[in-house]
């Protein structure tokens, strides 16, 4: 008699043990009853009857996905290799299981195609200098497409933009030419400012001949400070004119 009751009790205990499910706070279970969606359960302790019920577990934590390196042709016909990192999480477990076969693989493929299409619409300079804007554009497109799968894209970051050696040298030459252009512009602006100051100084000294003489003596003093064996001293035109006037007024020997 005891054996007749023991066997059903053991079977009930085994069925109960196989039916108990425990899910942590960051997971949810999508339960199907005879193949039809029934509910989303968890976290905590609940029962899933074997055979007639089936459960698929979904992780709600943020998933970090490395987008593989992609060959991209920019709008100015430059070939670059770009990779990125994608951060997303499941916000609707029901859609993530029912609407798409493998939501992680589907999100990865969507990120790769979106990365190529978005970067292909921009120049190389924009890829290198406007990464924040490109990240926002890629995130917005992926988020809108994956919304129907119950997925929320938290962030997209472009990690590397790899260039060929020839393109790196071309960019270096371009940067060098830009620096030379700036140096020439600065030098020209300095010459312009110096010429303006010289004109102002000349106008001031022309109003008083003593100022011109003082400037002349100062120039001679500066030249004498140099340890040179020969000093060439220029004579102002005013002095030459004074000598000519003196020569013209000198009395002749006949007088």
UniProtKB/TrEMBL annotation:
Q: Which PANTHER family match?
A: AT06885P-RELATED (PTHR10264:SF19), BAND 7 PROTEIN-RELATED (PTHR10264)
Per the record, the similarity remark reads: Belongs to the band 7/mec-2 family.
List where in the cell it is found. Membrane
Q: What is its main location?
A: membrane
- Name of this protein: Membrane protein
**The organism's place on the tree of life at top rank:** Bacteria
Instruction: Write one Pfam family the protein is assigned to.
Output: Band_7
Q: Which GO terms describe its cellular component?
A: plasma membrane; side of membrane
Q: How does it sit in the membrane?
A: Single-pass membrane protein
Q: Where is the Band domain?
A: 18-175
- Native organism is Halomonas halmophila
């Amino acid at each position: 008699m005891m054996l007749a009751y023991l066997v059903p009790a053991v079977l009930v205990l085994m069925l109960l043990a196989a039916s108990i499910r425990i899910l942590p706070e960051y997971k949810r279970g999508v339960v199907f009853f005879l193949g039809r969606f029934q509910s989303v359960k968890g976290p905590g302790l609940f029962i899933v009857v074997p055979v007639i019920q089936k459960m698929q577990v979904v992780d709600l934590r943020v998933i970090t996905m490395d987008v593989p390196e992609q060959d991209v042709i920019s709008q100015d016909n430059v070939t670059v290799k770009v990779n990125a990192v994608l951060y997303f999480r499941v916000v609707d477990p029901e859609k993530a299981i029912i609407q798409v076969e493998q939501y992680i693989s589907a999100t990865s493929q969507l990120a790769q195609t979106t990365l190529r299409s978005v970067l292909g619409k921009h120049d190389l300079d924009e890829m290198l200098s406007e990464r924040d804007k490109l990240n926002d554009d890629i995130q917005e497109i992926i988020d809108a497409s994956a919304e129907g799968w119950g997925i929320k894209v938290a962030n997209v970051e472009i990690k590397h933009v790899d260039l060929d050696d020839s393109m790196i040298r071309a960019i270096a030459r371009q940067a060098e030419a830009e620096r030379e252009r700036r140096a020439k512009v600065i030098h020209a602006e300095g010459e312009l400012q110096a010429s303006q100051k010289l004109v102002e100084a000349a106008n001031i000294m022309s109003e008083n001949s003593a100022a011109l003489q003082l400037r002349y003596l100062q120039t001679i003093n500066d030249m004498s400070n140099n340890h040179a064996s020969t000093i060439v001293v220029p004579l102002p035109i005013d002095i030459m004119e004074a000598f000519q006037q003196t020569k013209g007024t000198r009395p002749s020997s006949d007088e």
